[in-house]
Amino acid sequence: MSRRHQPKGFEILYEDKDVIVGSKAAGSLAVAALWNKEDTIHAALNMYVRKGNARSKKCVFVVHRLDQATSGVMLFAKTGQAQTFLKDNWTTTKKIYYAIVHGRLAQKSGTISSHLIEDEDYVMRSTTDSAKGKLAHTAYTVIKETESFSLLKVDLLTGRKNQIRVHLADQGHPVVGDDKYGKIDSAHKRLALHSQALSFIHPFSGKRLTFTAPVPEYFTKLIGPWASSTIGHNED
Fold this sequence. Notes:
This protein has four helices and eleven strands; from the N terminus they run ββαββαβββββαββα. With about 240 residues, it is of the alpha+beta class. It has a single domain (about 10-220), classed as Pseudouridine synthase, CATH 3.30.2350.10.
């Protein structure tokens, strides 16, 4: 696998003729945004598959998104057909995150559900108007607690924009470092949200593939070490 044109902030974990799976660094913009359409992992991966040939028309296709401040596993398709398959079968994809939140949750596991809507300032919020919002479900389990923080393993059952951050903030336990939905905290400026595992059906082989990204050291600094058995997830 050629690494010459591999984008900064995206460590390629696996690649074949249909997909590219990688680990995104926190702070790297995954796909084009209103304020930045060029300096993205998506654009850099296009250059990667073109191997620097400006005349090449090869490109990669967006399957899902991660917030700029979120780290972890991310998947791209290398053909339009693969993209269509992955999107059509996205409900079979399993997405596991780790989040460190402020405080201790009264319920140590559960599922948070609400309808999410985006306002004119591009901020997501829960709404009681089911006709306007899109239903979102976030399952969580508390893995470890300290006096100030809780480490959660989050099963993202749906994939709405900023879903985990909104749902946890709704519970009064915003993600550490989330100044958009939580609180400004000068001591913890980095968002403590990590896409730890992604399991999907391969568009060509039909086999289920699972990839994990190591949890950033930042998490250990906030919460301390925890049992390695809590890292990753197994297929049935």
